[in-house]
Amino acid sequence: MGSSPTSGTSSFDSVLWFIGLENKQMSSSEMVVIVGGGVSGLSCAHRLHQAGVPFTLLEASDVPGGRVQTDQHEGFLLDRGFQVLLTAYPEAGRILNYKQLGLRKFTSGALIRSGGKFHRLVDPWRQPLQALPSVFSPIGSFADKLKIAKLRASVSSKSLPSIFDAEDRTTLAELKRYKFSDKIIDQFFRPFFGGVFLDPELVTSSRMFNFVFQMFSKGAVTLPAGGIGQIAQQLAARLPSDQIRFGCRVKKIGENEVQLEDGSKVSSRVIVLATGGEATARLLARPFGSHQRRQVVCMYFKAPKAPFNEPCLVLNGEGSGPVNNLCVPSLVSPRYAPPGQHLISATVLDDFIEEDLEPKVIEQMHAWYGSQVNDWEPLRTYHIAEALPNQAAGVPPAFTQGKLNSSVYLCGDFCTQGSLNAAMYSGRLVAEEVMDKVQHH
Questions:
Q1: Model confidence over 251-297: pLDDT tens digits?
Q2: Which among 164, 309, 330, 338 has most CB atoms closer than 10 A?
Q3: β-bridge partners, 343
Q4: Domains of the chain, start order
Q5: How far apart are CA 168 and CA 191, in angstroms?
C-alpha cells in the first residue's frame, strides 16, 4: 500500500541502520526468535529486553509496526487506516510514553449527519457548555440521552475482569437491553461503534463494546502528533538495534527452527509468532477465512480548506453512501498536512467496499459539503483486508494465545481482542510465559 516509511526521531534512526544489512547471516542458534514486528511483537520484545532475555525479532518489511504505520506522501502523514489511541487503555498507559508521543486530542462526542444536516452529540461530562443544545438535537430522544448517561455510569464502574466475565451477547442485543431506540442505534451507535469494530451490523461481543465504551468514557481519544506509526517507532527505539532484523520473510516454522525464504535456517529454543491472522495460519498450515477478519478502506484527500473547523469525528447517521465516518487529522495535529493544506480521512466499511469507490465517495461528500469538494484531491487509498479480527459474540479468537507446543508461542490481536491495547497486552503476557520457560527450565 504505502511506499515511504514514517520519518523517525533520532532515537529511531539507530533501529534502521541495519536495513542495509538484510543479507547478513544470522547466528544459527538463538534463545528466543520473535516472528513479526507489529505492536504485539514489539511489546513482547520490549518485555524480554527489560528482563534481560536475549531475542531476535524478524520482520518481513523494512519498518516496524505491522498495521500501526504512518506513511509520508507529498508532505502529508497518512496512517494506514484511520486509527486512534485511547489514553485510558491500561496496557498502553503502562508501556508507552504519552508525553513523548505528543498526543493531540479529538473533541469528545461527534457530529452526526442525519436528515440532510449535521447535529452535535456531546459528552456532557466533558463539554458541559455544549450539552444543552445536544440534548435538544434530533439524534435519538431525550430518553435515549438519559440512557447514554446510565450506560456510561454502569460501564465506568465495572472492573475489566467483570466486563470480560459477563454474559456474552451482541452489541446490538446489549443496546436493546438498555432499551435504546432504533433511531439512536442507527444514527449514533451503528456508525460510531460500527466504525470502531468495522462492524455495522453490531454483532461484535458486548464484552468488547463495554470495554471500549469504558475506555472512551474514562480517557481522551488522541493521535500522536507525528502519526499513529510513532507508537511502533517508540517501542522499536527502546530495543537493541542488532536484535531486530528487517527484510526477513519467514517461510516455515518447525519445532525449534525457523526457515527463511532465502533458505537460511535459525534454530531457537523458543519461537514467538506475532504475525497477523493470515500469516499465522500460513505458517501453522491452518485454515483462515475471510469470516475471521474485518476489512476496511481508508481514502485520503488533500484540501485547501477543512470542511469544518474542529478536531472531531463526523458520523454517517443516514445509513446511505459508502463513507461511514470522516475526520480531518490535520485539525487534530497540524503535522498531518503541509502549511496551507488539510488532510481529510474517509472510512468505508465492508458492505460498501467495491472496485470503483472514489466517484461514490466524492458524490456523498458533495451532498454533505457542497462545491468545496471540487477542490479536494485524492492522495491515496488504503484497502486493509485484515484490519481487525472478527469479534462477533460467541466466536472464539482464530488462535489461542500462549503456548502452542514445546517451542512455539502465539501472541497478537487475533489471539485475543482487536485493539492496540490487546495487542500490547498479548505480547507482554506471552513474553512473561517465555521468560518463565527460559529462566526456570
A1: 999 889 999 999 999 999 999 999 999 999 999 988 887 788 999 99
A2: 330
A3: 302
A4: 10-68+228-288+398-440 (3.50.50.60)
A5: 22
